[in-house]
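Hello,

Our lab assistant flagged a job as stuck in the queue for most of the afternoon. It eventually completed. Since we weren't sure the result was trustworthy after the delay, we are filing this so someone can double-check. Below is the sequence as submitted and the structure that was eventually returned. Let us know if re-running is recommended.
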Amino acid sequence: MDQLQMIAADSGLDLDSQQFAQAMDARDPLAHLRSEFVMPTVSQVTGEAGNDKACVYMCGNSLGLQPKRARRMVCEELDEWANGGVTGHFRHTHGRPWAAYREPVVQKMAPIVGAKTSEVGVMNTLTTNVHLMLAAFYQPTAKRYKILIEGKAFPSDHYAVESQIRWHELPADAMLLAEPRAGEHTLRTEDILDLIAREGDSIAVVMLGGVHYYTGQA
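-- returned structure --
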């Protein structure tokens, strides 16, 4: 927020003005990627006829907009299956054999997570991976048995933590929630640190997402 206020002051625009929003859009280095996605109209989203203006879509945390290439690429894989059957695992018209699907994905994922390609595995669903992680790292004892997670975490994360606690037959207080202060919407770093200091001897796992899906806090 401080950085945005500085930019607004330098540009002579009000932070909450449409002109400032448009100026920020114009300087966005990723703005050109907007044309890569199918943008529904207001009528398509609301069901109300007569408004063909592109909607303002802010639900990317739940389901992002469809990339324009998605339909073509899905159809290519269906054609590969139809025309080659099992051979698609090793021989692929478009150079994407299914048996080696993870290799190009890992190459793109490694720099994102700051690791070597030999250290990265891309598999399963998010919830399955959370369970696998907790099965390995969550080893509760009589004294140290709590899992610290942010309040209003992504629902599947919350359910995974809850199910692990139940599986270990632990009380409900084993889930320790980091919540914003009254009247606030985001977590303060000092409050998280205070909570860890206060409950540290009873915490077995700290599981905080990089970006809070509910608020967008990073």
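-- support follow-up --
The delay was a queue issue, not a problem with the job. The result is valid. The mean pLDDT is 92. The first helix runs from residue 2 to 11.
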